[in-house]
């Protein structure tokens, strides 16, 4: 005899977690660690930092920067003249992808904020993620066997991949599993829902007996009614067709 | 050694393949068996695509 199918544990509802998303932006995987998904957090941390810094190493640590664009020609987008960081990013659009790796790209923002063309290095970070001058940039691109260019591609890919990691921390993975198998959401409500779904259900109650049909008393027809009046046929119909 | 294997820039690709496959798969699943399964599939597909492109470019540059 086939046993009845066991009920599937419910899929946990999407629970948005802005704090975990922020943590995963700051350091890849930190939001997942905060949520208790330590293994995935370490995978994101190690993988994305390895890719980002490997790319920087390929570019001789000179391929992540946000340039000072104050002395460069204006840039207009949709009739609006860009200024400040937007103008700087328009001259180095790679940084729009690198930025999402989080704090690892903040030295470039710091270099942009404190940039002084009369000095060779910033006060704290030195030349790390500082805009290279034109001669150095030409040397890097000419003598690097294309590895300098491939390096910034790696850093951009690492930053863009961290956008997926941030979304994973914010709303969970694309294909969510029942809580029983993953346990990534520490939510007592979902544990209650799982317990209710996995608990044996009581047998169905027998159907209620049919209700007795109501018995109505017979209609009282008055017997002393006068007989119906004889209606004479219209004169045109007496002869038939 | 084959000239194709002597080009050093190709030796930088494995870390890209592994990281992209693993991280992308891990953002789609929470179970490790599914993560590894999907990452393996993506790694093989990307590797096959890059090998095919590299082979075509090598043949074009050698015999054309």
Q: Please, could you describe this protein's structure?
A:
The complex is a heterodimer of chains A (241) and B (64). Chain A has helices at residues 18-26, 30-34, 38-58, 84-91, 94-98, 106-113, 134-143, 147-171, 179-182, 188-198; strands at residues 76-77, 80-81. Chain A has 241 residues and is mainly α. In chain A, strands 1-2 form a two-stranded antiparallel sheet. In chain A, a hairpin with a 2-residue loop joins strand 1 (76-77) and strand 2. Chain A is elongated, with a radius of gyration of 39 Å. The model of chain A is unreliable at 185-191 and 236-241 (pLDDT under 50). In chain B, helix 2 (13-26) packs antiparallel against helix 3. The model of chain B has no long low-confidence stretch (mean pLDDT 89). Chain B has 64 residues and is mostly helical. The chains are: A mainly alpha (241), B mainly alpha (64). At the A-B interface, helix 3 and helix 8 of A face helix 2 and helix 3 of B.
Task: List strands and helices in order, with pairings.
The complex is a heterodimer of chains A (241) and B (64).
Chain A: H1 18-26, H2 30-34, H3 38-58, E1 76-77, E2 80-81, H4 84-91, H5 94-98, H6 106-113, H7 134-143, H8 147-171, H9 179-182, H10 188-198
Antiparallel strand pairs in A: 1-2
Chain B: H1 3-6, H2 13-26, H3 32-63
Helix pairs in contact in B: 2-3
Question: Brief overview, please?
Answer:
Chain A is mainly alpha-helical and about 240 residues long. Chain A has helices at about 20-25, 30-35, 40-60, 85-90, 95-100, 105-115, 135-145, 145-170, 180, 190-200, and strands at about 75, 80.
What is the chains' assembly state? Answer: heterodimer
Low-confidence segments of chain A, given as residue ranges, are 185-191, 236-241
Count all strands of chain A and give the number.
2
How would you characterize the largest beta sheet of chain A? 2 strands, antiparallel
Biggest sheet statistics of chain B? none
Series of secondary-structure elements of chain A, N-terminal to C-terminal: HHHEEHHHHHHH
User: Strand pairing plus helix content of chain B: what structural class?
Assistant: mainly alpha
Largest interface: A-B, 32 and 20 residues
Strand content of chain B: under 5%
